[in-house]
């Protein structure tokens, strides 16, 4: 069972090494500059407390990490959010997500948002290499069997384990049963 640490009372130090979950990057990069009024909009605490903790960790000299899979997940979340914003206008309600991708102006906006977010992630954290092959899939399946995680989270655990990172910043409490030593969260 993980040690759960409230990010509001935590004091990062320069020796801390955190893997940062995708949703935290989403709130830190994309949501920080947008007003999102969709059914899946972030909660106020998510867009306030997580970015503040990331800044606190950086100010303390702590190390932040991500992996290339974060790009895939982050790009998908940004595209889905832009699509939800677009279709919240009733005149666009019938546009499918694939159809949305074909709208040149909207596509340019989505790609620009993804580029900005990914650049921000890379400017404050280190990208860890991940070698996806059968040797990494088998342990990921074990993680999926032992905890209610999605496949991305299972691979993130693999990356953390292979790099000796025991601290995770996430709003996802499912990680508490997945073998993470320390879960830094604002989740209630």
From TrEMBL:
SUPFAM superfamilies: PIN domain-like. Residues 18-176 form the PIN domain. It comes from the Bacteria. Gene3D superfamilies: 5'-nuclease. Pfam families: PIN. This is PIN domain-containing protein.
